[in-house]
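Sample A.
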Amino acid sequence: MWLEIICGLIIYKFYRCFVSSDDDDVLDVETSDSKALFSVGDRLAKLYGGKVYVGLRIPDADTASPQTIDLVLVSKGEAVVVSVKNLSGLVSVNADGSWVCESHSSNHKAHHLPDPVLETKKQASILESYLEQRGCALPQGYLSCKVILSHPKVCTTQSSNFPSEVVTYDQLMQLKPEPQNMFSGWIKGAFRGGKKEMQESICQKLDFILSTAPMWDRLELEGSKYILGEFLEFKGKKEDVQALKSIKRSKIGRLVVQKTSILGFAPSRLQVLYSPRDYRSEGASASKWMEVNVRSSTEVLFQPENSSKVRKFKLSSVVSMSLSA
């Protein structure tokens, strides 16, 4: 019996390594940027005790198209628009404010970027207009912006040429939650001197508006991999797709995939938990979760942000999925 089990494990591992489809594997290059967003967002939330909104798509009246904003940090007395640049290599700034990133590898050409600080300030202006349209006019100086270099292998030359809005990776790692730390000026608390009731009112309005604002769908995969993009549909056996038909962005905000395996074998069926969308609260209570069982071969069709390629992911590799309204 044990010999059969061991042989089965060997065959399964062989299948996973050599036979399984590449469509189920996400290249690091496709997930590294999204992972950097969530990593920076988690760190900022822990440091400043606020809420962080990732992957917002704020309507831009000038271009009639959504403006993607990496992160918005809402803390007491301030909101910060954060652009995360996951650059690896030597970064320098030109006289016109544009950046050049030269990779450590000789096989890669220099990467040129338009002025990230100017772009982030524009995003902050678009967000401020959007908030005003939804009935939340911010006091002057309440909204600021920052550009964070999130990659540990980034180097900067002539750091004095970088605007004060730029936070390097080393500076990010040195940030402390104490307000007296040397970098705390970027969470300057411009409005902290105001009335506590007014601060709380603005924070509540911001939290409600940003939690209901358009944003990219979010796919979390095994191995702490994240992808921002757009969920399209489920693919698989007819009865499985039919069982999942209730999971639509108009009705469902989040689903969680639970799986059990025996001795390393992939489960044949999965339990999918999902909760009805409710704008009145941040999440559903345990009593509101509903479940459906489907085959593990069922697939999720998802189009990553800034990609024209639609990817297929087996539901067995998915941890959770969040859908924008």
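Sample B, a different protein:
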Amino acid sequence: MTDPILYSNPQAPTAARPLLGLTVLVVEDSRFACEALRLMCLRSGARIRRADCLRSARRHLQVYRPSVVIIDLGLPDGSGADLIDELSHATPRVEVILGMSGDDFSEPVAIAAGADGFLGKPLKSLASFQEAILIHLPHDRRPSGPRIVSQEDIRPDPIAYRDDMAHLADVLGDSDDSAVVDYVAQFATSVARSAGDAPLEAAGSALRTARRQGQPAQSALAHIAGIVQSRLTDSVAI
């Protein structure tokens, strides 16, 4: 019986494209963050696949074995730390497992779960992205000789942010559920931080604070909903 895991012939990395031959699975629910990673992979020579939740990621992993998996810790159907733990104990193990989040306290959580490293949002520096992967690869999977260190900062298309606002608007329609409210707070804060949207980030943080303190969330939710609608109707999303 044929092994269902699909392999690809690795290509040799180069100084200009140091991740050539790698396939990166990004487990991330934000289109804006995914667009940043897509551009980084494109500039680096890596191929990218995307899963927007744990369930989708596990389906991918039943068929494909990526070289690198980058996992956001706040996902709509659970914590990315659970998937990190699964992959870190799997045999054979994925070459590089990275946690990702916009929350400062999330890096220790990802490392404790078994991640090799961590990417903090917002994702901007191409050089930092490349180094976060290369440092954990065996030497024969890295480019030989001097490597070109890019000074480029990645800026995703604002349309991707509008997609995130549309997703948030849909989720807000189900905000009677306590778990959904927590997800709204986490997602709004994270995606706003990535995009530099200070008003939405502040509103998401206020909702998170209200939830932690056991306060009513209706006012904070309404504030977020108003900001989201303004982003969707504005001709310039950010």
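Observation for Sample B: The longest strand covers residues 96-101.
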